[in-house]
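Deviation from plan, reported transparently: zinc ion complex.
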Amino acid sequence: MTSSPSAFSDSETIDDTNSTICESEIQYQTASTRKNRSHTSFFFRVEGDFAYCKICEQNFANTNKKVYGYSQKGGNTTNLISHLRDKHDINKDNYLEYLDEYEEVF
Ligand SMILES: [Zn+2]
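Because the crystal trials were delayed, the predicted structure below was used instead.
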């Protein structure tokens, strides 16, 4: 019968200060986030805390409809992205087709 000696290894003193793991180095950038600017910024006019769709503004120009203002608090662009996609069929892959040479909506 082997009497197993103490399973404890020597309690080494672990110095955390020398072992900072740098996870942020491994960060794959997708093409869409290359520029830190969302495609929504081309299509929305920001006024105060709200963003207004320029395309809707043009469409509503001769009507008495009001453009819905999306709250910009927190910098969340999810609503804007889905607005462009659902209302105008614009997404990050085709949005350039909707911009003129000045990167303005026409
Ligand atoms: Zn719109």
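Strands lie at 44-47, 50-53, 69-71. We consider this an acceptable substitute for the interim report.
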